[in-house]
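1st attempt posting a full record on here, be nice pls
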Amino acid sequence: MAKEYEGYVIEVNPKITGGVHENSLSGKFKLGETIKGLSSQTTGILKKKNVDMCQLVVQNISGGTGRYIGDPTLINDSTELIRGETTLDTVDTYRTYKYSEAPYKYYLETDTTNKEPVTNALHIPNAGAVEYVNITNEDGSITRKYNDYGGSISDSDVAFQTYRNYEFELNESRSKIRYVDPAHIERFIDEFEELVGQ
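the predicted structure (as tokens):
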């Protein structure tokens, strides 16, 4: 996992201003090109682009500070302009994560059981509204559900599953070995031989 998830995920925050799509990843950058942080002077190779999650996965990090800048909670130097050295495409960073700790998917913060994927409002500029509905379960507990009418969920109402956690859960589900009850094997063999013998 350390090798596959080496590097950083750069998340951007697209906006539409006066009909212009700012910070969109759509049609920008080429896989394999060098991505340079113009403030941090950090460089790396673009390995993956996830337009739906507004993420660039950059590996083989070198130079500069060794880390791209991106933390909207800081006041000074919280983001930086990054540039593709081949295409010369640019976007502003919004958040940066170590790859294994980056969001694999977002889910409604109150949905701790099913963790159904939702779209973070940061990724859809000028998104529509979302209607919340409280549903009373059989056991009397209340689950908050939502109806998404072309909108998305506010960043403050979502949580995310990391790539590391996703891989862990995937491996856990694959580790459950199922086997055929030995009592049924003889019956299977008899039926199989009967069918093949015809």
